[in-house]
């Protein structure tokens, strides 16, 4: 028997930092408790639903609706409890396969925007052209008829001033009556005593959540391309848009022209006095 280190004792120590590193949910929960915040406090500050916060703290990211939304929730919750979100995102990507490189979210939406759309015949332009043609034909016929009368008046020695002025008036006035194109307010008309928000997925699909002024959930789900939802409340409507870049909003009958980035998560609040950014 020899005195000294055995071969087993000479093996390098294993790095226990990975084993000691808390999970994403545990790190967020510990930081929240350390700051003296409840789940309700974090939900109120971030507009993230209580059920989703509980699930993330239990390392269950299924209710988020996908990896893109899960990353957005992790960043939001980390900032709320004063944590650096970058290490948590790296940890999430390491355990969930990382961000998909071949088909990132933003290029997909950009491709859908650039791709030309099939359009049907423009019946409005055809109708306007037909009206103008009819008016022109009537005016030409009237002028032609007046020309024959003018020749007779010249032969009789009279002047054609009265007939010329009479025929000129209908030619200039009638084209003004062409029906104007409908405005945005007419398309999305809304009552004045309520706040009305219309959400339409124009350039892709997006998860959305809507609540009234009491926090009651009006809708929570996926809005597919071409689908639309309308929400009303007596005071205000709170929105969370999972991919604001594909959404078109009408608030109280007026179009919102915010330039949202594709893939961006936006939290908005609108009242009866809007449109203005929530």
UniProtKB/TrEMBL annotation:
Record has Membrane as a keyword: yes
Region of interest (Disordered), residue spans: 1-21, 148-181
UniProt keyword terms in alphabetical order: Membrane, Transmembrane, Transmembrane helix
Pfam families to which the protein is assigned, alphabetical: HTH_25 (PF13413), RodZ_C (PF13464)
Domain Cytoskeleton protein RodZ-like C-terminal as annotated: residue spans: 200-269
Keyword Membrane (UniProt): yes
Amino acid composition bias (Basic and acidic residues), ranges on this chain: 8-21
Residues that span the membrane, as ranges: 123-143
InterPro entries listed in its UniProt record: Bact_Cytoskel_RodZ, Lambda_DNA-bd_dom_sf, RodZ-like_C
A GO MF term: DNA binding
Protein name: DUF4115 domain-containing protein
Organism: Streptomyces lasalocidi
Lineage: Bacteria, Bacillati, Actinomycetota, Actinomycetes, Kitasatosporales
């Amino acid at each position: 028997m020899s005195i000294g280190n055995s071969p087993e004792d000479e093996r390098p120590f294993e790095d226990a930092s990975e084993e000691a590193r808390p999970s994403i949910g545990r790190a967020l929960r510990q930081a929240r408790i350390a700051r003296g915040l409840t789940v309700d406090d974090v939900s109120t500050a971030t507009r993230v639903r209580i059920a989703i916060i509980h699930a993330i703290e239990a390392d269950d990211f299924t209710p988020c609706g996908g990896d893109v939304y899960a990353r957005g929730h992790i960043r939001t919750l980390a900032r709320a409890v004063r944590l650096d979100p970058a290490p948590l995102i790296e940890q999430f990507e390491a355990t969930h396969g990382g961000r998909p490189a071949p088909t990132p979210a933003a290029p997909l939406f950009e491709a859908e925007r650039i791709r030309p759309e099939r359009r049907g015949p423009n019946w409005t332009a055809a109708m306007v052209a037909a009206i103008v043609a009819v008016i022109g034909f009537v005016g030409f016929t009237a002028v032609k008829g007046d020309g024959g009368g003018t020749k007779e008046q010249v032969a009789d020695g009279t002047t054609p001033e009265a007939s010329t002025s009479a025929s000129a008036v209908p030619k200039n006035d009638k084209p003004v009556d062409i029906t104007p194109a409908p405005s945005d307010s007419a398309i999305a008309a809304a009552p004045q005593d309520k706040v009305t928000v219309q959400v339409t997925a124009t350039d892709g699909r997006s998860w959305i959540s809507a609540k009234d002024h009491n926090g009651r959930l009006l809708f929570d789900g996926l809005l597919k391309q071409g689908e639309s939802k309308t929400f009303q409340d007596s005071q205000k409507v709170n929105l969370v848009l999972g991919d604001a870049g594909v959404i078109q909003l009408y608030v109280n009958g007026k179009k919102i022209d915010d330039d949202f980035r594709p893939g961006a998560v936006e939290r908005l609040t609108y009242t009866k006095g809007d449109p203005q950014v929530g």
